[in-house]
């Protein structure tokens, strides 16, 4: 982007213009400073990514990517897990809640699963 225009961080309009110390969007009337826009862009981080970096959503089906100890048993790599629920407040670092046949309710980490296609 040139110094003469900036994309609006709210509506992404390319027609933002500078008015004294602020930038203004003519389409949505949003006002921002360049420092605020840079900080906002840095904060946008995907929270729930699988082991391959694919975004997960509640209700997805995933597969485990390695053997996991669950109680006294071992959950084998490649085990299919249906209808996961993503947790906004992780439980001991685990951000997925699910039910697995033969194991019951289990918490998993996003880093040990991959989205099933």
Q: What does this entry look like structurally?
A:
- With 117 residues, the chain is mainly beta.
- It folds into two domains: 1-45, N-terminal domain of TfIIb; 62-115, SH3 type barrels.
- Helices cover 9% and strands 35% of the residues.
- It is built from one helix and eleven strands, in the order βββαββββββββ.
- A three-stranded antiparallel beta sheet has the order 1-2-3.
- Strand 8 (85-91) and strand 9 (94-100) form a beta hairpin.
- The longest helix is centred in the N-terminal third of the chain and has 10 residues, at 34-43.
- It starts with 16 loop residues before the first strand and ends with a strand.
Outline of the structure:
The chain is mostly beta strands. Helix content is 9%, strand content 35%. The chain is built from one helix and eleven strands; from the N terminus they run E-E-E-H-E-E-E-E-E-E-E-E.
Number of separate structural domains:
2
Helix fraction, binned, reads under 10%
| Proper CATH architecture of the largest domain | Roll
Number of strands: 11
What is the assigned CATH homologous superfamily of the largest domain?
A: SH3 Domains
Secondary structure elements and their pairing?
Blueprint lengths: L16 E3 L2 E3 L6 E2 L1 H10 L18 E3 L3 E3 L2 E3 L4 E2 L3 E7 L2 E7 L3 E5 L4 E3 L2
Antiparallel strand pairs: 1-2, 2-3, 4-7, 4-11, 5-6, 8-9, 9-10
Question: Can you tag this structure with a few keywords?
Answer:
three-stranded antiparallel sheet; mainly beta; N-terminal domain of TfIIb; 117 residues; 35% strand; SH3 type barrels; single chain; 11 strands
């Amino acid at each position: 982007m040139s110094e003469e225009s900036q994309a609006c961080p709210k509506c992404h309009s390319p027609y933002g213009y500078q008015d004294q110390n602020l930038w203004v969007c003519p389409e949505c009337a949003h006002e921002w400073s360049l420092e605020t826009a840079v900080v906002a862009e840095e904060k946008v981080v995907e929270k729930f990514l699988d082991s391959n970096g694919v975004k997960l959503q509640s209700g997805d089906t995933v597969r485990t990517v390695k053997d996991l100890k669950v109680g006294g048993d071992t959950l084998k790599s490649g085990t299919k897990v249906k209808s996961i629920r993503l947790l906004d407040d992780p439980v001991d670092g685990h951000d997925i809640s699910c039910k697995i046949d033969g194991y019951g309710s289990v918490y998993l980490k996003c880093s040990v699963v991959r989205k099933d296609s």
